[in-house]
Amino acid sequence: xxxxxxxxxxxxxxxxxxxxxxxxxxxxxxxxxxxxxxxxxxxxxxxxxxxxxxxxxxxxxxxxxxxxxxxxxxxxxxxx
Length: 80
Prior knowledge:
Elements: E1 7-14, E2 19-24, H1 27-38, E3 47-50, E4 58-61, E5 66-74
Antiparallel strand pairs: 1-2, 1-5, 3-4
């Protein structure tokens, strides 16, 4: 029986060596955000990255500063 992830940790690797982890409840939610916000529009405008652990708080980045993304499924209980 296949396991189902409880959420997805998205590792954003940014220019300058910075690294930020944000979480999405489903892979589809991440894909919708990525396709609609990070992948659309000019690369030098600011976009919001939702930080789900902090309601109403966002990380603001420029899409051109993202040099890599790693998607990590997380199983089981939510641990920080």
